[in-house]
Write a structure and sequence with these properties.
Blueprint lengths: L11 H13 L11 H20 L8 H21 L5 H30 L16 H8 L4 H12 L2 E5 L2 E4 L4 H6 L6 E2 L18 H14 L2 H23 L6 E2 H18 L13 H14 L7 H7 L5 H20 L6 H11 L3 H36 L1 H18 L13 H13 L9 E2 L5 E3 L2 E3 L4 E3 L2 H5 L42 H18 E5 L6 H5 L2 E3 L1 E3 L4 E6 L4
Parallel strand pairs: 2-8
Antiparallel strand pairs: 1-2, 3-5, 4-12, 5-8, 6-7, 9-12, 10-11
Helix pairs in contact: 1-3, 2-4, 3-4, 8-14, 9-10, 9-19, 10-15, 11-13, 13-15, 14-15, 15-16, 15-17, 15-19, 16-17
The structure holds protoporphyrin IX containing FE.
């Protein structure tokens, strides 16, 4: 199960001495001092060679920290050689060194730009001019507002279904892209982006198919139908607590965004770690969701540049948010391990596999990573979906009536205060509301990148070369007329009585697809159905005075997961308990 990045130690003085001793015995073919042009050309040539011989093929992002250190180390080494062996004055050595290193970089980047602009297999795909030369363009595009999903929609409106967003990157918004790139039969693999959190590993970031398959088996036990039934019993008290807390506002405005987070995090604490974080009843841990989002926001704009994150993770004072969040998770794993749990929880199943492991130290890293994954993957996604759902319910009160008409007879017949498992399929409108909110507002709005197989891939009649990073922009596709009729409108009936309004049944991918799809899908649906039924049964929902939901919809940020602004709602009790 071990799959960690190698960290290389650099002994700079030793490297300098070794290199210097070699240069000392070599007669340079020119005098650096009197023939600067030749020296510059040689450095530029080395840059071109390193591109053509090394950088042009394969993946190098994991070597990012090593390459950065080597590049920095070359400065003192070259300066030392020029000063000590070529016997240039100190200041001249330093100036020549900078010039040579810059010439090397110029050679490297010129070669890259010429190749990417004129000879790259993606050269025939349209996209912003600068995007073809570097992924930095994509980063720059989203730097100010962290609004990748909006930028992707704009680019697709301008350039069509296929947009070259980086030298080897395509965004494909054709509905056929979902089965081809994400479907069970797809031969695409996870892109280098998934290495962004190394050396931390987890199921989601596992790029090796076999490693992923093995770990997913451990996870499957925690998400079996029997486990889900047991989990639902523990969601119900949290839904009740949520309703009681909302009722205590007495009809005053509530920050729905924050409260759905408290619910979803508490549910993940309870079901993931065996103990709620108690955010619904106490203020103590309410900082955790903000910490997570801060961490995601810190590095969101760098996501198009996979080599940047391994470097940032190694710089002590940078990306403090994710590091603090990891510390919080580690603490939770240690506490859960110590206290044990009488009730089944997700970590319990993973701990049981770990107990049997022969490589306890290595597999403990997986345990940490997967606990973080469960908390991140299970909380914020569910919370933002619930907030979007209640935005639509406040905007369209008729939807609330339709929901009540559907579930009230089902609850009366079963005598339960939540939907019985056998009635879930009958709650077609409730399921339609959830799917419609997820279609219009996927919590991972810009999709997740894959790499095409070496032989390439054909989507909607267009051939995409092998080793291309492809992403399906989910929010753009979810609102596309090519996939849905009246695509911008909220019509839950399209998911049951009006199937003609779904033009491409494969286009819905808010939970992913294929072997890497969301393993928590059924659990999140259990949580959401449970809470929606309880809230809608007990409260009428309205926008708070001064709230129209526009800023909420307009100002959402895309940090891979979506960060939504506060949505102020009023919950008025229909029948006080
Ligand atoms: C509305 C709620 C949710 C949505 C929209 C959602 C969406 C997704 C998506 C799109 C993926 C695939 C990402 C990729 O391929 O890179 C994913 C993976 C995953 N999700 Fe969810 N998720 C939700 C709730 C949950 C919950 C409640 C859990 C529970 C712990 C969970 C756990 C996971 C895990 C463990 C993975 C990784 C699966 C793998 O790589 O095999 N998710 N989720």
């Amino acid at each position: 199960m071990s799959q960690f990045a190698n960290t290389t130690q650099f002994d700079l003085p030793a490297m300098a001495t070794t290199m210097a001793s070699k240069v000392g015995s070599i007669q340079l073919p020119f005098d650096v001092h009197s023939q600067p042009t030749q020296a510059a050309l040689l450095a530029a040539g080395a840059g071109i060679l390193s591109h053509v011989g090394y950088f042009i093929r394969g993946e190098h992002h994991r070597n990012g920290p090593t390459i950065a250190v080597l590049y920095m180390a070359s400065l003192p080494v070259v300066a030392f050689v020029l000063y000590h062996y070529v016997r240039l004055p100190l200041v001249t050595s330093a100036a020549q060194t900078v010039a040579l290193v810059l010439c090397y970089a110029a050679g490297l980047y010129t070669s890259m730009c010429v190749y990417r602009g004129l000879f790259h297999p993606l050269r025939k795909f349209n996209g912003p001019f600068l995007a073809r030369f570097s992924n930095l363009y994509h980063s720059w595009l989203v730097m100010e507002k962290s609004d990748n999903y909006r930028q992707m929609t704009k680019l697709h409106e301008k350039y069509g279904d296929f947009v070259r967003t980086g030298p080897s990157n395509l965004s494909v918004s054709a509905p056929e892209a979902v089965p081809a790139v994400l479907g069970p039969k797809s031969k695409c693999t996870k892109s280098p982006w998934y290495d962004g959190s190394l050396p931390l590993v987890n199921l989601h970031t596992a790029r090796d198919q076999k490693v992923h398959e093995l770990r997913r088996k451990d996870f499957n036990k925690a998400f079996s139908p029997a486990a889900l039934v047991a989990y639902e019993e523990r969601v119900t008290p949290l839904s009740n607590l949520f309703c009681d807390q909302i009722a205590s506002f007495g009809g005053a405005p509530v920050d729905a965004t924050a409260w759905f987070k408290y619910f979803a995090f508490d549910a993940m604490g309870e079901l993931g770690l065996g103990e709620s974080f108690h955010m619904l009843e106490k203020k103590d841990n309410r900082w955790v969701p903000d910490l997570l989002m801060e961490g995601m926001a810190d590095i969101a704009q760098l996501q198009p540049i996979p080599w940047s994150t391994p470097i940032l993770h190694r710089i002590p004072l940078i990306a403090q948010g994710p590091k603090n969040f990891i510390r919080f998770v580690e603490d939770q794993v240690a506490k859960r391990k110590e206290r044990g749990s009488k009730k089944p929880d997700i970590l319990g199943y993973l701990l049981a596999s770990w107990e049997k492991s022969e490589k306890k130290n290595v597999d403990y890293q997986w345990l940490r990573g997967d606990t973080r994954l469960v908390i991140v993957g299970g909380s914020d996604t569910t919370a933002s979906t619930l907030t979007f759902i209640f935005y639509y319910l406040a905007k369209y009160p008729n939807e609330v009536r339709k929901l009540r008409d559907e579930f009230e007879p089902l609850l009366a017949a079963s005598g339960k205060d939540h939907l019985d498992t056998k009635d879930v399929a009958k709650a077609v409108h409730l399921n339609g509301v959830i799917h419609e909110a997820l279609r219009l507002n996927p919590p991972i709005p810009s999709g997740y990148p894959r790499v095409t197989p070496p032989e390439g891939l054909t989507i909607a009649g267009r051939y995409i070369p092998g080793n291309t990073t492809v992403v399906v922009p989910l929010r753009t596709l979810g609102r596309s007329e090519a996939a849905y009729e009246r695509a911008q409108e909220f019509v839950p009936e399209r998911w049951y009585s009006k199937p003609g309004m779904i033009k491409h049944k494969d286009a819905f991918a808010s939970f992913g697809g294929g072997p890497y799809s969301c393993i928590g899908r059924a659990l999140s649906l259990v949580e959401m159905r449970n809470l929606i039924v309880k809230v809608v049964a007990r409260f009428d929902v309205e926008f708070a005075p001064g709230e129209d939901g526009e800023a909420f919809m307009r100002d959402a940020k895309d940090h891979f997961i979506i960060e939504i602004p506060a949505l102020k709602l009023v919950f008025k009790e229909r029948r006080p308990l």
